[in-house]
From TrEMBL:
Protein known as: Small RNA 2'-O-methyltransferase
Listed GO biological process terms: regulatory ncRNA-mediated gene silencing; RNA methylation
Cofactor dependence: Mg(2+)
GO MF annotation list: metal ion binding; RNA binding; small RNA 2'-O-methyltransferase activity
Source organism of the structure: Paractinoplanes rishiriensis
EC number: 2.1.1.386
Name of one Pfam family that matches: Hen1_L
Keywords for this protein: Magnesium, Metal-binding, Methyltransferase, RNA-binding, RNA-mediated gene silencing, S-adenosyl-L-methionine, Transferase
Domain Hen1 N-terminal intervals: 1-233
Catalytic activity: small RNA 3'-end nucleotide + S-adenosyl-L-methionine = small RNA 3'-end 2'-O-methylnucleotide + S-adenosyl-L-homocysteine + H(+)
Residue ranges occupied by any Methyltransferase type domain in the UniProt entry: 275-376
Family: Belongs to the methyltransferase superfamily. HEN1 family.
SUPFAM superfamilies named in the record: S-adenosyl-L-methionine-dependent methyltransferases (SSF53335)
Group of enzyme by EC: transferase
Length: 453
């Protein structure tokens, strides 16, 4: 999956400053669906091109919509631009999308000549023109033909855009409209997607002739979300001239709130040596590694692929030796005893227990609370009562969840486990708490009641 950005505004290599990516290097980023690369096939004073290449890992494409066993492998997702590419744009060009450039702030505010190409994109010539044309782009969307023996055109186009615009505006146009052309999202569309749409559509979406189509497709045809977005477009007024430079508060995602709650719990129990059990791709590990109060950090997962991803996320191979020695990665199943996990200050099970089959939970409890026996254990898990707020959600939040507990069920399990293994337990809400259904995530802090000499 490929997207290229080209400018001829001299010196053209200043594009590297705007994107915060040096033209002489190949930059790689781990994303939830694979690996994104940023490289420069050409970089001269006269012309500079930055390419975003997304290498999709089919094994990470777990979709509940797959209707047959190999659905995650037999599809166009690794090749045709979609919300996967839009998400990679947001990850790799975050500063550029905000219009921020430490080295070239005046250039970030300037409209520059740009050429954009997306070689394979699901959509039609007409729709591409209707979406990008009103934004001032010269649009060329060439249908990609099927194989000669079949004849005719496929449902994909080779999209080329040319025009003069701020780079931030161009990136935000792409971030919104690529998923709209594809008409699919690779992740669950929750209410916070409205804020993403309005933030990236600021200054252009409200006056776009296809704003209704954009809102409905971007929000996965969830009518109440689209209606809410459109109503906010109608009433939201642009800031007054003197307020234009004021910072806009960003809504903190539930994943960030959960991570911060776990870090706060670890600080509360004064943990320095920490186990991240079921660490997955390393989201929490990366946060732990940035905090010097944690002198030893262990990530543990049964999946070697997840550990490879975690290693890349914390840039383990690039860390100075002293920092690298703080971090260890172990492949281990949490339902089997592992002596390497004994003797730590705290262990974290962040969104892990719901992935374990209920008959195997006693084995996990014995391994973590009985054998490893850290001074403290922090556990987070979804609150099933909150699921009613996710429109269209039937069943559980993730296809790999084996169960999701109500607050009463989680507290019952936690208290029984604490009593069995000699811990005290307290509970915390994570996320915005609803007066009836409680928070989206529930957290428990177990602290050992053993008296140490």
């Amino acid at each position: 999956m490929l997207l290229t950005l080209t400018t001829t505004r001299r010196p053209a290599t200043d594009l590297g400053y705007l994107l915060v990516k040096h033209p002489d290097r190949v930059h790689s980023f781990d994303v939830p669906t694979g690996t994104a690369y940023v490289l420069y096939p050409e970089a001269t004073d006269e012309r500079c091109t930055a390419a975003l290449l997304l290498d999709v890992d089919p094994q990470r494409l777990r979709s509940q919509r797959d209707t047959f066993e190999l659905g995650q492998y037999v599809n166009d997702r690794p090749y045709a631009a979609s919300s996967l590419l839009a998400a990679a744009l947001a990850k790799t060009f975050r500063s550029a999308m905000r219009g921020a450039s430490k080295d070239r702030p005046e250039l970030a505010a300037e409209s520059i000549p740009l050429e954009i190409r997306v070689p394979v994109l699901r959509g039609t010539t007409d729709l591409a023109a209707r979406l990008f044309g009103p934004l001032g782009w010269d649009v060329t969307a060439t249908p990609i033909p099927l194989e000669p023996e079949i004849g005719g055109d496929s449902r994909y186009v080779d999209l080329r855009l040319a025009g003069t615009a701020r780079l931030a505006d161009a990136l935000n146009h792409l971030y919104v409209l690529l998923p709209v052309l594809d008409d699919a999202k690779h992740y669950w569309v929750a209410p916070d997607e409205i804020d993403k749409l309005l933030r990236s559509g600021a200054g252009w979406l409200a006056n776009h002739p296809e704003k209704v189509l954009v809102a409905r497709r971007y929000l996965a045809h969830r009518k109440h979300l689209a209606d809410s977005a459109l109503s906010r477009l109608e009433v939201d007024e642009p800031p007054a001239e003197e307020e234009a430079e004021l910072p806009v508060a960003r809504k903190v995602s539930l994943a960030e709130q959960r991570r911060d709650a776990v870090l706060a719990a670890l600080a509360e129990v004064d943990a320095a040596r920490v186990l991240d059990l079921g660490c997955g791709g390393g989201a929490l590990l990366a946060a732990l590694a940035k905090d010097r109060r944690f002198t030893e950090i262990v990530g543990c997962d049964v999946s070697s692929r997840a550990l490879d991803q975690a290693s890349r996320r914390v840039r383990l191979d690039r860390l100075p030796e002293r920092q690298r020695d703080r971090i260890k990665l172990y492949q281990s199943a949490l339902t089997y005893r592992d002596d390497r996990l004994r003797g730590y200050d705290a262990a974290v099970l962040m969104e892990v227990i719901e992935h374990v089959d209920p008959p195997r939970l006693p084995a996990l409890e014995a391994t973590v609370f009985g054998h490893a026996r850290p001074r403290a254990v922090v556990v987070t898990t979804p609150n099933a009562e909150y699921n009613v707020h996710y429109e269209g959600l039937s069943g559980m939040r993730h296809s790999d969840h084996r169960f999701e507990w109500t607050r009463a069920e989680f507290e019952d399990w936690a208290r029984r486990t604490a009593d069995r293994y000699g811990y005290a337990v307290t509970f915390r809400p994570v996320g915005e708490e609803h007066e009836t259904t409680g928070p989206p995530t529930q957290l428990a802090i177990f602290t050992s009641t053993e008296v140490t000499a």
